[in-house]
């Protein structure tokens, strides 16, 4: 949970878009590790057995969060691409400056 | 179907006809589903698999998708890549409106938003890039909150089905609701929306305002009635309806007016959950129609429009009447919304309706003249749909009140028009909207705690 808050803090305080995207990624990593934590609550042994024991990790959250990792990757890749284009076209990566520029 | 969409990218000439054909196919299937009232509930692969449900709510949304895309394809899309993206979007939207478990909802919403992102930047302008980037940052932030909510739900219930959201801790449901509200276009939550919708290409913004905003509404419709938190969201909806309409009335840009009005209309949709599917169907139709009409206008600045040719003048007036909700048009279903809301929201909603009429009254006083425009098929199609909807849900009760609201709206327009002006809203900046979102998350969890 701490990682998520660090991510939110980064989103709030940094003005550079790259830093914002980085904080967004940190936040996503926080969510992923929260899911992993939940799955390890029942135990840490990998669930590759035929007979289910109490010590096994819960496979469902892990299976589910892989999709989210992929989605996060895709989002980040697209966002960074757009940031590159913005940097070459608008010559700025500061969010306040960009907001002003777009209106003019 | 998906194969068909891949054919576009390879066929050079016939992609337009194919697009129309594919949409006609989709529309006929959606129409059949709607008329026969088909319903099913499948769980793909085992207990934790993907859960798909087709019921009354999904039927309305699927019909809406088919109708809006049909209108767009009648207008004609010039670019091959755009056609391809649009058709992929259509399929993922159809799948989204069927999904019924928390994680599948997340995956489909993210997929649709990535496609939306590509659609927005299609015009390759700086403003479009910036609007899309804002959208993706705020949206991903929201979806991360949503995922934390889902994780907490799983921790308590060991299940990802929507039905099990009932007895979860407050923080889980509030995080999920805030996360989706960012996507769905409620005022204060999604201030990225006006810029993104106003800057995108005409066809794209018709699709965005018509259908893509409804994805969030659909997810809220699935989650909230189960978790017993209707009150808070519907009050936020009513407030959003009023605020959005104020900005719509003050702005001068045609597309800005439409997108602020989208904010307010989503508020109206969310203020009553019983009629939400029906009203979003109506809103999708007239809003995409209005956006498509932008092509026929000479400029985006409303004040600079001196003359319009007869056909576009006629259709502009018809569309404005239809968003104002006169009897016989699709906006007329608003009467049913009013019936299902508590007193405070009722007053707020009436104000919002008056404001809608007032902000669209500008288009009723245009002058006729100039050359005729060329393409009118999509206008005729959407006009028929809108009229059919208006006739189907006709109810004598609201005739008087709707005409009264319309007249009040016009008089408000005549009195206050041009007196105050709006240049730029600080709320839309990224640096302002992010802290607001964080504060709102806290506020909503607090309100839910109080309500318990």
What would you note in describing this structure?
The complex is a heterodimer of chains A (104) and B (452). Chain A is mostly helical and 104 residues long. Chain A contains four helices and no strands. Chain B contains 18 helices and four strands. In chain B, a hairpin with a 5-residue loop joins β1 (40-44) and β2. Chain A binds chain B through residues 4, 7-8, 11-12, 15, 17, 20-21, 24, 27-28, 30-31, 34-35, 38, 41, 60-61, 64, 67-68, 71-72, 74-75, 78-79, 82-83, 85-86, 89-90, 95-96, 98-99, 101-103, and chain B through 48, 103, 106-107, 110-111, 114, 117-118, 121, 126-127, 129-133, 136-137, 140-141, 144, 147-148, 151, 154-155, 158, 160, 195, 424, 428-431, 434-435, 438.
Q: Topology as H/E string of chain A?
A: HHHH
Percent helix of chain A: over 70%
| pLDDT < 50 stretches of chain B | none
The chain-level structural class of chain B is mainly alpha
Mean pLDDT of chain A: 77
Main-sheet strand order of chain B equals: 1-2
Count the E strands of chain B: 4
Sheet with most strands of chain A: none
Q: Work out the strand percent of chain A.
A: under 5%
Shape of chain B: globular
What brief labels describe this structure?
heterodimer; A: 104 residues; mainly alpha; 0% strand; B: 452 residues; two-stranded parallel sheet; 18 helices; 71% helix
Kindly summarize this structure in a few lines.
The complex is a heterodimer of chains A (104) and B (452). Chain A is an all-alpha fold and 104 residues long.
Topology at a glance:
The complex is a heterodimer of chains A (104) and B (452).
Chain A: H1 2-13, H2 17-39, H3 59-90, H4 95-103
Helix pairs in contact in A: 1-2, 2-3
Chain B: H1 2-10, H2 15-36, E1 40-44, E2 50-54, H3 56-75, H4 80-96, H5 102-120, H6 126-157, H7 170-184, H8 193-199, H9 202-227, H10 230-250, H11 254-271, H12 276-293, E3 307-308, H13 310-324, H14 334-339, H15 343-360, E4 367-368, H16 377-392, H17 399-416, H18 430-451
Parallel strand pairs in B: 3-4
Antiparallel strand pairs in B: 1-2
């Amino acid at each position: 949970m701490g990682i998520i808050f660090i991510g939110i803090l980064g989103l709030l305080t940094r003005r550079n878009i790259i830093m914002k995207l980085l904080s967004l990624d940190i936040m996503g990593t926080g969510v992923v590790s929260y899911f992993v934590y939940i799955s390890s609550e029942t135990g840490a042994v990998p669930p590759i057995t035929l007979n289910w024991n109490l010590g096994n990790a819960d496979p469902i959250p892990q299976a589910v969060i892989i999709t989210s990792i992929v989605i996060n990757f895709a989002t980040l890749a697209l966002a960074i691409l757009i940031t590159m284009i913005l940097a070459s076209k608008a010559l700025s990566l500061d969010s306040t400056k960009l907001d002003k520029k777009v209106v003019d | 179907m998906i194969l068909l969409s891949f054919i576009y990218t390879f066929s050079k000439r016939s992609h337009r006809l194919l697009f129309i054909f594919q949409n006609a196919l989709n529309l006929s299937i959606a129409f059949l589903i709607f008329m026969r009232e088909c319903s099913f509930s499948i769980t793909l692969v085992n207990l934790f698999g993907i859960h798909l449900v087709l019921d009354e709510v999904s039927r309305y949304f699927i019909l809406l998708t088919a109708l809006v895309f049909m209108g767009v394809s009648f207008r004609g899309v010039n670019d091959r890549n755009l056609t391809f993206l649009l058709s992929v979007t259509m399929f993922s939207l159809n799948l989204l409106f069927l999904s019924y478990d928390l994680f599948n909802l997340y995956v489909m919403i993210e997929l649709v938003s990535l496609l939306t992102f590509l659609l927005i930047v299609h015009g390759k302008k700086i403003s479009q890039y910036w609007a899309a980037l804002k959208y993706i940052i705020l949206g991903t932030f929201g979806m991360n909150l949503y995922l934390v909510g889902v994780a907490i739900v799983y921790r308590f219930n060991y299940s990802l089905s929507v039905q099990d959201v009932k007895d979860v801790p407050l923080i889980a449901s509030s995080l999920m609701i805030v996360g989706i509200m960012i996507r769905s276009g409620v005022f204060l939550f999604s201030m990225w929306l006006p810029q993104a919708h106003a800057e995108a290409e005409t066809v794209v913004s018709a699709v965005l305002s018509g259908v893509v905003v409804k994805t969030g509404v659909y997810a809220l419709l699935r989650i909230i009635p189960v978790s017993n938190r209707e009150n808070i969201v519907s009050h936020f909806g009513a407030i959003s309806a009023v605020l959005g309409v104020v900005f719509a009335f003050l702005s001068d840009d045609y597309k800005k007016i439409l997108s602020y009005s989208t904010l307010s209309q989503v508020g109206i949709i969310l203020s009553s959950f019983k009629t939400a599917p029906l009203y979003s169907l109506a809103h999708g139709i007239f809003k995409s129609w209005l956006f498509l009409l932008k092509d026929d206008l000479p400029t985006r600045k409303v004040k600079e429009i001196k003359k319009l040719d007869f056909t576009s003048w006629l259709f502009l007036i018809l569309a404005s009447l239809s968003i104002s909700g006169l009897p016989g048009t699709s906006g007329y279903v608003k009467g049913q919304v009013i019936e299902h809301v508590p007193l405070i929201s009722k007053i707020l909603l009436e104000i919002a309706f008056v404001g809608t009429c007032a902000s669209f009254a500008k288009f009723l006083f245009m002058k006729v003249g100039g050359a005729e425009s060329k393409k009118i098929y999509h206008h005729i199609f959407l006009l028929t749909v809108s009229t059919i909807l208006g006739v189907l849900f006709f109810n004598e009760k609201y005739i008087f009140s709707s005409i009264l609201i319309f007249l009040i709206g016009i008089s408000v327009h005549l009195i206050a028009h041009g007196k105050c002006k709006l240049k730029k809203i600080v709320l839309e900046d990224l640096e302002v909207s992010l802290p607001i979102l964080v504060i709102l998350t806290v506020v909503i969890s607090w309100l839910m705690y109080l309500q318990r």
